[in-house]
Structures are given as C-alpha cells and as structure tokens.
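Q&A log
Question type: sequence-to-structure
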Amino acid sequence: MMYHKPVLLNESIEGLAINPSGDYVDVTFGGGGHSREILSFLEDGRLFGFDQDADAQANTLDDERFTLIPQNFRYLSNFLKMHKAAQVDGVLADLGVSSHQFDEVERGFSFRGDADLDMRMNQNADLDAKKVLNTYEESDLVRMFRAYGELKNARRLAAEIVGERVVQPINRVSDLLRVADAAKVGKIGKNYMAQVFQALRIEVNDEMGALKEMLKATEKVLKPNGRLSVITYHSLEDRLVKNYMRTGNFEGEPEKDFYGNLVRPFEPVNRKVIVPSLNEIEENQRARSAKLRVAVRI
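Response status: OK
Response body:
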C-alpha cells in the first residue's frame, strides 16, 4: 500500500520555479512524493526534508543530494543553519495529516476504527489525546473545540467529557464517540466527528503554533526571489497562510510605509487559490479540501 499519495504534485512543484543548482526544503517529507519530484528537477542542487514522524523517517531517500532532518518544521531555520544551508531557493509544505497516519488505526487519528487516543505526530512527545481529554480544565476543552474544531456545541461537549472522565477515563476512540454522541443534538455525523478529531489533533501537535513559527522562519530562510509553496486542507491553516503571504502577519491587516506601499516579506504569485482538478479529487479523497498558495520572497 502506498504510504501517501501527494496532492497537487505538479502544481506545487511548478510553484517553486526550481533552479537545478538551487537548495530546496520539503518541510513535510511524509512518503517522499513531493521530494522525489523536486529531486527530478535538480542537478547539483540540494534538498532537505523535515519530518518528526518516525514512520515517515523510514522512507528516507538514498540520494546524495538529499538530507532528511528528523525534526518538527517549526525549527526550520536552526536546523538548516546546522546543515550549512542558512538560505535556500524554495520551501514546500504539504500541511495536515498524511494518508498513512489516517490509515494506521493504532495511531488514533481517525474515528473509523477503535484504538487508543494518541494523535501524536512525534511519537516521543509527552502530550497525547488521552492526556488532553482526561486532564484539561473544562474551559480549556471549550477553547480547543471552539478554536480548532469550530464546534457550536463546544461547551456541551466539554461538559460531557468532564462528567464522563469522573466515572472512567476517556482513553479510546470508542469512548470519545460515545461521549460525543451524548453531547450532539440529533444524529451524530461524520462531519461533526471530523471536527472533534481535528480539534484534538491540532491541540496535541500544536499545529497552529508550529505553522506560525515555520512561516515566520521563511522570512530569513528564503533568498530574495525564493518561492514558498504551501498546500492547506482546512480553513484555520489556510487563513494563516493566506494572511501571511498577503500582509506579512497572521491577522491579515495590511501595513503600509510612508508612501502607501505595502510592507510585507512576500508577494503572492497566484492571486486565486489553486485547487485540484476533478480527476485528482476522484482519485485521491485527501485532495477534496486541498488549496495551494504560492508566494515569492521580495
């Protein structure tokens, strides 16, 4: 079984405008699909891959031009400096969860099978989904479900979780499904559970914090005219990427100099977001919500 089928492969690579002698970074290595495509364009250039997931690290490529860095991409700048690549020509990010992580039921990322509630992308990390559900204050659970799951009944769900864990710990997917069913008005649906699991996963892995740090690091890491190519899958991460590329901040508030010119580190390349074709969506379910944004370092 394929570890992970890359989404928007051609479009995201084209966005990098690859220089065969340049240095590039795939900050979400995964199964190596995007990395292999980047290498096919390189001659004496170099490619660095980042991935904190041990399963992904097992896919490392046997190519002298490639270096796999087993770290969270939030440390992009520090580890590139360690590898004598302080500035590069392009950075690619394919955000979200890989198909492999969803398909490996025991990782706890999906509600399609019963398993321990783990959800850690870095399997050595201390915080997992069980700890969040069984130790967080009710107010923190409300914040999490509202901010990262955009759940309208966040308060009720948090209350059900706190009440349930007094009786027994919420350790498995089936436990969370039972609690969520009690909190839901009407029949529980896939979309609702996807929002619940998304909120938990983002919290466990501090995905929004890591994304912000990585994006800010590209200001220093990318050379002038370097390219940033980012694929997003949900509105929270897409909003951050869009705002950052357009304004240089995450709030989306344009800043102008004395002459009225926008002050920002990047210029968007594609004015309209790039989405997969209908054929790609039919062949790869993960592509359904994918959006590609590309920007050039000013």
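Response note: The beta strands are 23-26, 46-50, 66-69, 88-94, 222-232, 266-268, 291-297.
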